[in-house]
Specification:
The chain is α+β, with helices and mostly antiparallel strands. Helix content is about 35%, strand content about 25%. Strand 2 and strand 3 form a beta hairpin.
Length: about 575
Amino acid sequence: MPRIRRESGDERRRSKSVWFAAFIVLTILAVGTAKVQLWPDRRIVSQSQKQYWANVAVSASRGRIEDRRGVPLAISVPSTSFFIDPKYWDPASADVLKGTFGAATARKFSRELPGRFYWVARNIPKERADKLAQMKVPGLYTLSEKRRMYPHESLAFHLLGFCDIDEYGQAGVELSWNHILYSPPRTRFLTRDSKGNAMDTMSGKSGVVKDTAGSIKLTVDSRVQQIMEWRLSEGAKAVDAGWASGVCVDPYTGEIIALASYPTLNPNDRKNLVNTNAVRNNAVGRVFEPCSIFKPITMSIALETGAAGRNTTYTCHGTMKLFDRTMSDVNRRAHGKQDLTHVLMNSCNIGMSLMSMGVPKYQAYGMLKQFGFGDKTEVEIAGEESGLIKQPEEWLGTVPANIFIGQGIAVTPLQIVMAISSIANGGMLLKPYVIDEVRDSLGNVIHKGTRRVRYQVVSKQTSDFIREAMRRVVAEGGGKLAKSEKVSIAGKTGTAQIAASGQYAKGQYVASFVGFWPAEKPRYVMLISIGEPKGARYYGGQIAAPVFKSIVEDIVQISPEKM
């Protein structure tokens, strides 16, 4: 048998030394690796930066907005953004920027700059960017982004709103529904290839990041919207008005068919957005005293509370002393003895003032609140105002009479349209809505607009009576300039003074016409308001009624079978 060799003491000591030496070497290597990771050598960093130097957040696709027929109103399109890396940029090349971005941008990059990354311009349309990009100027690079684009330019601007440079909603539907339409920006890692050319890599698994934005279909008909904007602008320019507004709704559903403001602008050119007057959405964001277009509503209240009956008559002498004030009609015209229909046809302030005296103020206040005044309609559009109605404790002296003729109360155009819609549809106040359908990024419907009744504000009998009276306003009364041979129209004129600092501003008015058609079975309710017209013509019957008529007749032409 072979003998087992036993290690001597010296051999055991040598073996331990070898293992200890190996341990030391491994420890040194581990420490060295950690040091490189935690405290990298500047030379290594410098070499690395030749390959990678920045990560940048760039905009992603934003969700599509379309009208009720599927016509695109807001989309995302490819765009090009330019940036400079000063390490490779020659300031002497700055003149190449002048043609695309202007002299100011060229001057900015005509000097030495610290750092590694500077935006030159973002979201440049491809057709503008291509020529400069193809020049391949050293140090000037491009990134692909998405840009919000409105194919029909200013169409429905005040309804749609706009986005900032990062595609985040700033107004209108774009802001109210930003949580659906917005996709978070994507991170781009800027690197250099083996030839020294700039390239970018998208973050995310395999460089692929799916859009998270949903899409929205509106209740708006872009054809009606276009007609309204054209006629509204035409009418406002004819009298050199400061502003104008138009709202058209379906009285049986609460759907907004068109909503327009004047002046307007094209949001595709961001420089336009500094015009605050043009940015303002007058239909939901401007309040004014409605004056006589309010009379169908207050007359409805008088009928519902029993303060007046269909056969009630009032005698108008042109003026009336009431408490410490004198109420008067236009030009102090005496209308004589008249029933409720003629009070409305003649837009008689005296008749309405006498009517107000029989209505308990708390009842009147409560019904005005039910009609939606003093509260937001909660339509899905950012920037809505609530208007103003005095508390019943403040209804002292001539206040009730003033409110019954549409003074001393502040309303928005949308509030008026919805209140008149309740008269047109048989007495139901509906909640307005502009969103027909919302889909998620996978195309699943996650929200569907629907008809919502807020209150039964008046009876069908009262509704029928007021509707007929409004028909006669157009057929025989002060609204004759809205009369059409193509379709029967019912409505009411209104001319309001503009209040400022507790007093009415001299020579400043809001001319309005509110109505519906066909008068017998209303399909649409619409309000046209023209603010601060200049010149001798400023009455609602003079300048707003003809605009209303022209819009109606244009709409009838595109859908005559439903009229």
